[in-house]
Design goal:
Layout: E1 3-6, E2 9-12, E3 16-17, H1 28-40, E4 46-47, H2 56-65
Parallel strand pairs: 3-4
Antiparallel strand pairs: 1-2
Helix pairs in contact: 1-2
């Protein structure tokens, strides 16, 4: 995997986004599985924002890495 320097740290050049995650409880298992698969493949940069599902995306990320 290729890395780039961001704020003095080396991070993967490619990451996972979470826009629209955490909005539909019926999609939770699929969202968690998608993030977990990315993590298993070495994608440890996950983009999220508190406005995504009003914090729901962070809950999905937390469940995926737990």
């Amino acid at each position: 995997m290729r890395y780039v320097k961001l704020a003095g740290c080396n991070v993967p050049a490619i990451g996972q986004g979470t826009w629209y995650m955490g909005e539909d409880p019926a999609q939770r298992a699929a969202e968690v599985a998608a993030l977990q698969q990315g993590i298993e493949l070495g994608m440890n940069l996950i983009d999220t924002a508190e406005m995504y599902a009003e914090g729901g995306a962070e809950k999905v990320v937390g469940q995926a890495i737990a």
